[in-house]
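Format notes (please read before filing issues)

Several people have asked whether sequences and structure tokens are stored in separate files. They are not. Every record keeps both together, in the order shown below: the sequence lines, then the token lines. Line labels are part of the format and must not be stripped during preprocessing.
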Amino acid sequence: MAIEAVIFDFGGVLTSSPFEAFTRFETERGLPADIIRRTNAANHLENAWARFERAEVDIETFDELFAAESLALGAEVRGRDVLPLLQGDLRPEMVEAVKRIKAQFKTGCITNNLPANAIGSMTGRSLYIAEVMVLFDHVIESAKIGLRKPDPRIYQMMVETLKVDPNNCVYLDDLGVNLKPARQMGMTTIKVTSGAQAIAELEKATGLKLG
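Then the structure lines:
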């Protein structure tokens, strides 16, 4: 396969996963295990989280909707309390890999993110550190376009903008549900569980030395 482009998710791929922070929060507050992830997963195309990532609701509405949805699953969690947990740490080895890939191929980033004012200064858009985002030929943010993964249209927009054949693309995400549409389009997909694992699979897919 002749690779033309490598497309990345942001959170959980270029940064560490927020799932660890979710677990810590639940343990500290004596909440049921995985209540946050289960709330995110229930009705995942139209729940509070999905609507917030498409910028269809404001932070107050998100806070209330998330509380109601989590309560229905067994324990109330305020949406506002979940937002600070989203800040992952940048994985420097992944940033270096993007730099090496950019020298050879087109690069893209498709991120389900939140409206600009949703989180305090340490998270949200400030996380989209300029030096990282300039490594991508094109970035698609859900909150800016009103579409979010796994909607197939968001992947289509990326390949059309990059002017590449999806069969010649590699796509990385930490969520299986977001990999499925990319795979159905013909992309080679990598489910990211750690930086080292992602880099090893990327090296195999691209033939580049990234470590």
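For reference, the curators noted about this record: The longest strand covers residues 106-111. The CA atoms of residues 20 and 49 lie 18 Å apart.
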